[in-house]
Specification:
183 residues; alpha/beta; two-stranded antiparallel ribbon; 8 strands; 29% helix
C-alpha cells in the first residue's frame, strides 16, 4: 500500500482527544492495519522466536532503547506463550517475529514500509506525535513474511510501568486473532 492510501485509511480512525466531564481526556484509540488473517498465518506453527536481527527501536535521544526493546520482547513472548506457543531459539523456530517500534519523526512510514512492507500511518499531518509498533511474522525456512500488522497511537512520555502496560496493550491488539494451541 502506498503511504497516501494508508493515510487515507487511517484519517477516519484518528480522532482528537475527547473531553470527559471535567478536564480529563480519554486517549485516542490505537489505529491498526493488518495484512490478513493471523489464524491462517499461524496454521501449523508451534515454535516461535524473536527475530535475531529484526527488532528495531527508535526513541528520543537520552532515552533507554534497550529498556524499550526488552519491554516489547517481553510483551511479544508472553503473549505467544500465553496462547500455547513454545518460545525457542531462532534456529529451531517455525516462525520469527520481527518488529519496529518508534516515535514520529524518528521512524517514519517510508522506512517502515521499506523494512516491513507495511506502514503505521504515523504522519497524519494533525500535529499529534504518534508512536508506532510494526510487527511481521516471517517463515524461518523461506524468509518470507506470513503476516504483517502495524499499530499507532499518540505517544506521550510515560513512566516505565505505564509504558510497559501500553506496549502490552498494543501487542495484544496487534495479535488479536492469534489461535490458541491446545495444551
Amino acid at each position: 500500500m502506498t503511504r497516501a492510501l494508508l493515510i487515507a485509511l487511517l484519517m477516519p480512525l484518528a480522532s482528537n482527544f475527547s473531553s470527559c466531564a471535567a478536564t480529563e481526556k480519554e486517549p485516542e484509540p490505537i489505529s491498526l492495519i493488518r495484512s490478513g488473517s493471523l489464524a491462517v498465518a499461524m496454521h501449523g506453527v508451534a515454535r516461535v522466536a524473536l527475530h535475531p536481527r529484526g527488532r528495531l527501536v527508535r526513541i528520543e535521544e537520552g532515552k533507554d532503547a534497550d529498556s524499550l526493546r526488552m519491554s516489547v520482547d517481553s510483551a511479544v513472548t508472553e503473549h505467544f506463550r500465553d496462547y500455547g506457543y513454545v518460545i525457542v531459539g531462532p534456529d529451531r523456530a517455525d516462525v520469527l517475529v520481527a518488529y519496529a517500534v518508534g516515535v514520529t519523526g524518528q521512524l517514519d512510514d517510508a522506512a517502515l514500509e521499506r523494512a516491513f512492507g507495511v506502514a503505521a500511518g504515523m504522519d497524519l499531518g494533525d500535529g499529534v506525535q504518534r508512536g508506532a509498533l510494526v510487527m511481521t511474522i516471517v517463515n524461518r525456512r523461506t524468509g518470507l513474511s506470513r503476516w504483517r500488522a502495524s499499530a499507532s497511537a499518540p505517544a506521550e512520555n510515560l513512566p516505565v510501568a505505564e509504558r510497559d502496560s501500553a506496549i502490552q496493550g498494543a501487542v495484544a491488539e496487534l495479535l488479536r486473532g492469534l489461535p490458541k494451541i491446545p495444551r
